[in-house]
Design brief:
The protein has 385 residues and is an alpha/beta fold. The protein has nine helices and 16 strands. It folds into three domains: 164 residues, Rossmann fold (3-Layer(aba) Sandwich); 116 residues, Cyclophilin; 43 residues, no CATH class. A hairpin with a 3-residue loop joins strand 10 and strand 11.
Length: 385
């Protein structure tokens, strides 16, 4: 059986626009949210499973109020008071003291709020009235949860309350009908947003099957950061099998950190299952996964072809580069492992020149005569081709 092992020799530049998120003091993200029914809290959980961020929940000072009771009487009363005198602090309902009152350490702020009767929830309006001035010049994003009503007035409320923000892009609207698919919606939204310099949110993974390579956009979480760390050392080849008519999956050979949530996986999604299995989808399935990423720009039919839907023992290589595969043992770089590589390896050993990483064929951390022996074993077994 053919086995191709790539060698990854290109380290990611820390300033790359498409580098994995590396939260620094200059690029920290703060997620601020208010949740009345719990929907916004679930949205924040899905969001922070994909990016590193500090999180702050806004709470009303008066607890237990039912804003929707008596035909929305209380909620409308609060909104009407704000609309009547939007510049008067007394128009806004009181909120609890916030846990983060100084926003100077954050360049990116994401606001997650419910919609009340086509307007931003009054509780979140209070927070932005009090702290919106600190967001001047910062990159600000907006996610709005509603049952079905449009969010244009919420966007207008946000821009009124935070007039000097640099808006990252269009607001994300998550409604009742697509709430269960929020993780995918959030991932796509993150990729479309203009985060401040110093906060890059995505990296590219390259997936190779039978010599065909496709790019994938990674989520940003502990699992993908660990995966990228491993791929910086060398690419990884796994053997996957079709399952359930919607995925190919199998063991990675190691475990990654989990941030499991109920994910409605879509064609192209890449997820971690049970901490040590990778799944690549050409169909759909709902289960508890840790999101890893999404294969870029392929239709469902193209995904079925690329992922060898229905087949078994599919060799899948994961890498951080889209360049051609390099076979371990191909010391002279001619694309094959043969007796010429033994000769080249011996030349390295007899000289002071440093041998390339692919010369460490037995992967013991050193390049020595044992690697020449291993190359001969590969040639005799045809294990490299």
């Amino acid at each position: 059986m053919k086995r191709i092992i790539f060698i990854m020799a290109i380290m990611m530049a820390c300033c790359s626009v498409q580098g994995l998120a590396s939260v620094t003091d200059a690029g920290k993200v703060l997620v601020v949210y208010y949740s009345y029914t719990g929907n916004c809290r679930q949205i924040v959980e899905s969001l922070t499973a994909q990016i590193e961020a500090d999180v702050m929940e806004i709470e009303p000072a008066e607890k237990g109020l039912q804003y929707e009771a008596n035909n929305y009487a209380l909620g409308m009363q609060l909104l009407n008071a704000i609309n009547a005198a939007p510049n008067d602090p007394d128009s806004y309902p009181a909120i609890d003291p916030v846990t983060i009152s100084d926003l100077s350490g954050y360049d990116n702020i994401i606001i997650v709020t419910p919609l009340w009767w086509s307007q931003m929830a009054a509780i979140m309006q209070t927070y932005l009235f009090n702290y919106g001035s600190q967001m001047a010049g910062k990159h600000v994003g907006l996610i709005v949860s509603s049952h079905s009503s449009g969010i244009s007035q919420v966007v207008a409320d946000a821009k009124r309350l935070v007039p000097d923000a640099v808006w990252m892009g269009d607001a994300l609207w998550i409604k009742a009908s697509n709430h269960s698919n929020r993780a995918t919606l959030i991932q796509n939204w993150i990729a479309s947003q203009d985060f401040a310099p110093g906060q890059s949110t995505m990296d590219k993974l390259f997936v190779t099957i039978d010599g065909v390579t496709q790019s994938a956009t990674l989520a940003d979480n502990a699992a993908t950061r660990e995966l990228v760390n491993r791929l910086q050392e060398a690419s990884i080849t796994v053997t996957l099998n079709s399952s359930g008519g919607f995925e190919i999956w199998g063991p990675l050979g190691f475990s990654l950190p989990t941030s499991n949530e109920q994910v409605y996986a879509q064609p192209g999604d890449i997820v971690l299952y049970n901490g040590s299995n990778i799944c690549l989808f050409y169909g759909s399935n709902s289960w508890s996964y840790t999101r890893l990423g999404h294969i870029d720009n392929l239709t469902q039919d193209e995904l079925r072809t690329f992922l060898k839907a229905g087949e078994s023992n599919i060799n899948v290589t994961l890498s951080l580069t889209s360049g051609p595969a390099v076979k371990r043992g191909d010391v002279n770089g001619d694309g094959e492992v043969n007796i010429g590589d033994v000769t080249t390896l011996i030349d390295y050993l007899l000289s002071d020149e440093t041998a390339p990483d692919m010369a460490d064929v037995n992967e013991d951390g050193e390049v020595n005569i044992g690697d020449a022996t291993k190359i001969i074993d590969i040639i005799l077994s045809d294990d490299s081709n």
